[in-house]
Amino acid sequence: MSFAGRPFTTLAIAVLGCCAGLTLIGPASADVVPPQTAPPAAPRPDDDSSAKSRVIRVEARLSVGEELDLGTAGRSAGDQFVFGGDLTSTEGGEEHVVGSIGGFCVTTDLERNAGQCASTAVLPEGQITVQGRQAGIPVPGPVVNAVTGGTGAFRRAHGQVTQRVLTPATWQLTFGLLDVRPYRPEDGRGPDEAPRPVRPSLPDK
Fold first, then answer.
1. Is 4 inside any structural domain?
2. Is residue 105 a contact partner of residue 81, using CB atoms and an 8 Å limit?
3. 159 near 142, Cβ under 8 Å?
4. Is 94 part of a structural domain of the chain?
5. Is 72 a domain residue?
6. Domain count, the chain
7. What torsion, rounded to 10 degrees, do the Cα atoms 188, 191, 192, 196 define?
8. How do residues 15-46 score in pLDDT, each as one tens digit?
């Protein structure tokens, strides 16, 4: 019986020793200083609290509108419609040119005469790019396409544009934009502001 009791005594001492060890570890761990939280990151230059939504209404007056018959002769997938012209506004009661637009559509659906279109509107504050499907090319019905990006004040803008064809050469465009930021010269100049190339002068013979 005495031999059988020794293991029990040894086990009891071991258990008490473990408990004592846990008791010692507990207070010690309470003195550990918790890691400090990292300070909030400084706002980036692009983080501008003055960003806001904006609606821009303009009319596209097309001076270019070419249908290109590509691939198989006649209407076929892959045919293109290329367009371009000025953007005008009547803000202030008088019509005036405020920018330009250019783009193209590629026919992908012969039954609906529809395809994928992409265009770029160039305004004094920057560019706005648009992409989406349109039916009835080259004179589509009312359509809403996505704003996919931009530059300058529109560098982070997103939203959509509603297009209505008033005549084959006059389109009404309404841009509903979100996250429009103030224009900054360091964001870059638009193509209309870029210096025009100068022809090299030939030396006198």
1. no
2. yes
3. no
4. yes
5. yes
6. 1
7. 110
8. 334 444 433 334 444 444 455 555 555 445 45
Q: Is 12 within the bounds of a domain? A: no
Predicted TM-score (pTM) of the model is 0.67
Q: What is the pLDDT of residues 147-198, one digit of tens each?
A: 999 999 999 999 999 999 999 999 999 999 999 998 766 655 544 544 444 4
Range of the domain at 150: 52-183
Alpha carbon distance 202, 72 (integer Å): 47
Tokens of 203: 């030396």
